[in-house]
Amino acid sequence: MTRIADIPTSRTANFFRFQRDPLGFLLDALHMGDVVSLRTSSFRPTFIVNSPEFVQEILVHQEERFRKGRSSNVLRRTVGDGLLTSEDHTHREQKKYLKPVFYKERLQAYADIVVDETNRLAAVLEDGVPIPMHDVMMRLTLGIIARSMFNTELDADKAELAAAVDDTIKQSAKTIFSPIILPFTVPTPGNVTHKRAIRTLETMIYDAIASAKREPERYADSLLGLLLDTVDEHGQPIPDHEIRDQMMTMLLAGHETTANALVWSWYSLDREPEVAGRLHHELDQTGKQAGAQAGAFERFRTLSYTKQVIQETLRLYPPAWAILREAEQELTMLGDVFPAKSSFLISPYAIHRNDHVFGDAAAFRPERFDDGPGQWPRFAYFPFGGGSRGCIGTQFAMIEAVLIMAVLGEHFRFVSVEGQSEAEPEPLVSLRIKNGRWMVPHRR
Q: In its keyword annotation, does this UniProt entry include Manganese (predicted)?
């Protein structure tokens, strides 16, 4: 018996509904079937995948039969052929030489940088003075990724670089959802803005590469230093353009996602006073127990409830709200046959909101993670993807988000500025709060 269900609405209606409200469209399709056919053309059929079993087939068991396809083609315009967009043998080789960047001893050093940068921010926040939380978190995580990965200080240029990152993300999202991808050579306002933003980021990256070549000892412990010391399978050094692609990938994928998740966390804590109270109690207790000599990484390991707050944020508001895959050849999954050139849309945002799995799934309840994610089917909760293409920086992202919340949460509670409506998710390349969120830091 097939596990594929046809969507009842027309192809045209589906297209316009998805363009207008992709998240609502995906949520409506969640309980239509394990796999929902959008009844598109037989030449390129499209399916929404709702079942964790099918997700596991696509991301793990048969992952070699899929490509990232259109989404990667769009992102490649910005980040080039880095780890996020490369395929097959190239992706495997890149992942192999990037793995040491996230070894435990490096994560411990990164944790210290996270705490140092967040303490700098805490020192300049003014009690009772509203801040644009999205912008503040973006600049904070941008500074952290630049120091951690590139050993580069961005104080003077942080605003300009954060704006450039924002431009690339907005323009990439518009292109992903557009039925036509216009080449960069067409001077549309969007393309002009996008190309200017890429030049801004590239200038910083190539300056850092040149500096690292002049002073290799200074960059020895950074991603940049590792890349400059790495040789490929033929014994050749990695060319500058490939280093540029990896650095651009880390710059964009390595901080905007965490910043968005943190904004959602602060917003959720403001709406759930009991959760915020339990979080602050843990921070106060662990802060006293840790003492002045405890390292940042050791502190991270004690923050069990703070970690659950982040996990619950990633359940309700996963930055990677959609995962796209394309099958080049006909394949069989769990008894169903899918034609060549089939496209599959997997939405962690929708799957994470399945009441049959989570119970009261729309509620923000971090304690549901008391028993860990292993209590649910493997791909009922997967904010970092899975398989060989799962996020290589998962541990770094969790350490960063938890420690930022700990440092700022020890000193402040954040309250939304009055007059703002309920936060509305905006599904760009990653999931952010539409129009940002103004919040007031109140010193504790």
A: no
Long-range Cβ contact pairs of 39-43 (< 8 A, separation 24 or more): 39/6, 39/7, 39/10, 39/11, 39/14, 40/11, 42/339, 43/341
User: pLDDT digits over 306-343, tens only?
Assistant: 999 999 999 999 999 999 999 989 999 999 999 999 99
User: Cβ(119)–Cβ(144) under 8 Å?
Assistant: no
Assigned domain for 47 exists: yes
Structure tokens at 353: 């909101």
Domain span at 19? 1-80+321-382
Both tokens of residue 304? 């069990």
- Which residue, among 173, 73, 76, 254, has the nearest Cα to 425 in the 3D structure? 173
Residue-wise pLDDT for 41-68, tens only, equals: 777 899 999 999 999 999 999 999 999 8
Q: Is residue 280 part of a domain?
A: no
Instruction: Tell whether 173 is covered by a domain.
Output: no
Residue with tokens 């400059």: 228
Strand 438-443 and strand 131-132: pairing? antiparallel
Residue 237's Cα: distance from chain center in Å?
29
CA dihedral 206, 212, 215, 218 (to 10 degrees): 130
Asked if residue 407 lies in contact with residue 441, where contact means CB atoms within 8 angstroms, the answer is no
Contact of 141 with 120, CB cutoff 8 Å: no
pTM, two decimal places:
0.93
Q: How far apart are CA 317 and CA 353, in angstroms?
A: 10
- Do residues 321 and 349 lie in contact, with contact meaning Cβ atoms separated by under 8 Å? yes
Give, as one character, the DSSP assignment of residue 157. T
Q: Which residue do the tokens 């070699």 mark?
A: 64
156 in Cβ contact with 176 (< 8 Å): no
**Would you list the DSSP string of 113-131?**
HHHHHHHHHHHH--TT--E
**How far, in Å, CA of 319 to CA of 76, rounded?**
19
Residue 369 belongs to some domain of the structure: yes
What is the count of structural domains for the chain?
A: 1
